[in-house]
């Protein structure tokens, strides 16, 4: 069973693309893309168990910390850069977005939407930092140091002059709950953006 | 029946392959005829698809796994990773491990007889390069009926041979495993090698390499060379935790005898090595290290040098290795990425410095085994139950 955001990305990736997956975990997405769409590429990961799982699947995995950048990848080295659920854990998400769109013309990013109504209610009514399915950590030990909302990310893309090719939000792990209508900033738990360099 | 550990390949016997077809060498000279001594573990399958080649490092040899005798104290040098159920699983793979030319463990080298003079080669033995070794290894593969290796694997200088395999014989290598290696030596690496060489060459028993004619050997020099080398194989932490500032006796004795445990250890290592290894071989091996630089022929562009490589790579480094530290492995990895090759890279957290590649360490084993399982699967070899 593939995570719902991975399932959607899987559908978006073109046949035979060269993909770089930042924070590729156990290589689930890349392995599925290689099998179903003849995709090639690399995953970057720092978790030892994730790296071993990638090797077992035959996914090319490089042990590399995303906060150190992507300098070892040349401009336009790939067709697409994917980063699922890692943006919020980076030291400088904005610089990473620049890097991703240097390495490829297009990228797909997913992250937990902090403006999801349950998070708002948690903070609004209880007065504590939200702890949820998509944000399972306590404030003091969370790796998620740059939480943002669906709207925040859209604004960042706009400020950088990037074009949003596609966007959607999902709720939990349930398939078929992906939508870009109906107040995504309020009702989306996971945000997913497909962003491209602005056409010249 | 002798008792060996269950995950050991058990008793092994070296074999010798003799070659009469001359081998043209990078230095311009030709080796008219030569022997390669080797060991094999496991069984070559009918398709010849399960063969693995092990390439050894500076002071290594063909005896990589198992035991030569029931009373042998220690198994082969890479027994931690070769055997039934180990990363290089001899129940699935047919493993070939040889002593390289120029060595002193049975393959033709400085201690062998020069057929044209009838005397020992000594310092007249041609300087070997990694390219020459790989060429001779391919001939051994021909002899054993191996058209293509499922993987060629090596650590340190062995890893450089693996890299050379991918460039010289891309059609004969299905996977490359390069461990604790570097695409070229740094100035510091060459400097350490030069200290080792000078230690040997300035020994008054060296006789310009003709020490055998004087019934002696430059043991003091070789001992010093090994001591210096050994320091670079261990990490500062590993030395610290193993010896600290421990003394052999309770008090300082205000003299130059062995006082600290680390001195005792280094002297012991040096002494043992100097009576079991040939000085000319040591000199030649350090030169092969210094010379290796596949990017040199491509204006220093390693990615271009790698253009002919065709197989997936696994590159492994160790966090405390300061001989060939992680950035040297990343240099190779990044060049492979630039050259659009399939590569995976793991940087293993280990306190053991460069020597970590010889040892069992849970994450190292997990990474190694996961990759080798995939190699086996791709070659259509049965997964172990």
TrEMBL record, chain A:
Question: Which residue spans traverse the membrane?
Answer: none
Tell me where on the tree of life, at the top rank, the source sits.
Bacteria
Give a single Pfam family match: MetW
Q: Which SUPFAM superfamilies match?
A: S-adenosyl-L-methionine-dependent methyltransferases
For this protein, the record's InterPro entries field holds: Methionine_synth_MetW (IPR010743), SAM-dependent_MTases_sf (IPR029063)
Q: What is this protein called?
A: Methionine biosynthesis protein MetW
